[in-house]
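Q: Structure tokens for this one, please.
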Amino acid sequence: QVQLVESGGGLVQPGGSLRLSCLVSGNIFRFYPMAWYRQAPGKQRELVARIQINGNTKDYADSVKGRFSISRDNAKNTVYLQMNSLKPEDTAIYYCNVDEWAGHRTWSWGQGTQVTVDS
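A: Here is the predicted structure, written as tokens:
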């Protein structure tokens, strides 16, 4: 059973930055494309960033393009999300999981990490 542990969230002022991390248990991380998702209160979960297995191909939702950057370290079984120029509308719980847009069935979801952007 794959376990996902997200960390790095917190309260930040508009315009600030945060770096999220997600540790994936087991030895299968390097075989899967990964993604970051978020879910705001009362809204559906949305995919915000995705990265291929080799880390060279990345894609972003229009709402975060130019502000967020996804990366991965296959040796550490970890995927990261660098978030800059944060806006109040970025407030959500952030989760990592396998990239469902690539046709993969998601693993069991972790607890996520709360990001709150507020002055």
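A few notes: The two ends are 40 Å apart (CA to CA). The mean pLDDT is 96.
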